[in-house]
Amino acid sequence: xxxxxxxxxKVVDARGSHCPGPLMELIKAIKNSEVGQVVAVYxxxxxxxxxxxxxxxxxxxxLIGVYERDGYTEFVVKKTR
Amino acid sequence: xxxxxxxGGGTGGTVVANILAxxxxxxxxxxxxxxxxxxxxxxxxxxxxxxxILDESKITREEEKLLDRKIRLVIDxxxxxxxxxxxxxxxxxxxxxxxxxxxxxxxxxxxxxVQGYEASxxxxxxxxxxxxxxxLERFREGVIAVGIGGIPYKCPPAPxxxxxxxxxxxxxxxxxxxxxxxxxxxxxxxxPHEAVAEAxxxxxxxxxxxxHPMFNIESIDPEKKIVNSLExxxxxxxxxxxxxxxxGAEVIEASxxxxxxxxxxxxxxxxxxxxxxxxxxxxxxxxxPVSKSGAAAHFEAKIVADRIxxxxxxxxxxxxxxxxxLCFCDAGFRKAIYMDFNYERPPKKPRxxxxxxxxxxxxxxxxxxxILKGIV
Lengths: 81, 376
Hints:
The complex is a heterodimer. Chain A is of the alpha+beta class. Chain A is built from 2 helices and 6 strands, in the order βββαβαββ.
């Protein structure tokens, strides 16, 4: 799988998740990934646009891109540590 | 006669079994495998830890007495699920063939995955709740931190709820002014959904509960009593309550059915496992992006029972899970909030009220009769 030319190692479809929500799904996926792997998370939660970039920055990972898709947003994150 | 095997006698497994027994016991033989003769009402752990329930028998029953008499209960451990050959192998060596399989094996806690976990307490098992109760009774003053050692975990609001109930507990003991309560939130908010987070944050501020955004516990230094986050922060504590990391059941991992920690990947609407339309998974066992909670397991169980019975009766299985979850969250002082949401409909901004507190008490009371029998 690829998104914007980037190879995606894992896709987390968190559309419709209000609890635990897309960020918790992303944290789970990042913890279960190897350094250097790329995770894409799909979200329909408007709060994700604030909280996913905030957490990625604080946890020291890399936000490769935020893409508006048909009815949802895709966040692509690389595990860097 | 079709053979239905249900693995796990928690909320989901018990509800599926009872509904199927009522609907199709003449057409199918229903077997439920559970690793214990005891059924535990897990939301009671929190009240046990806080001394509001002192008698453990109030939250435990014999599984056999909760099941319809037409269900065969097998107390054993499933060690292997062979989906190719439609068979489950038990630790006694017995083999169970099935036409339909429902995996409701729940989750298990693995505190040992956090370095220094011995210095922490939790309320995610009977023993854990008992130990925490004793530690709280001894506690006179200092800092109590409540945080999360791994995602996913059962009942996402539980740690925030526990903080509010700690405030109530120490107020009742008359030492609230000597205790600092710190909530270590894994998110930038106090709750995943914004509207709910706003209400919970206000409540925490009103109660003087300190909360720390984006603090996912990575390790604990038991000697210095310091908890460290994977985001690079630390906090000194006198007593640490850590929600332990969870994994799927061992049989899921041993059978190669799980992903990312042993969670069974299922279709978010049909709850079927991959291309095996006769294999379903429900409740904590799945990798669905919904709360690991009894409420989710209960709603999913009703869908699966409907689908299996329809198919056995020669109809097209049409029931679809819409992601519904509901929960009551106790804030202490006889006030609670209520949330009801699904994949399409987010929770509304909740209101703390006595009415929802009563609602939670009703659920606690009617769990054994109406909920587990699949009547509601």
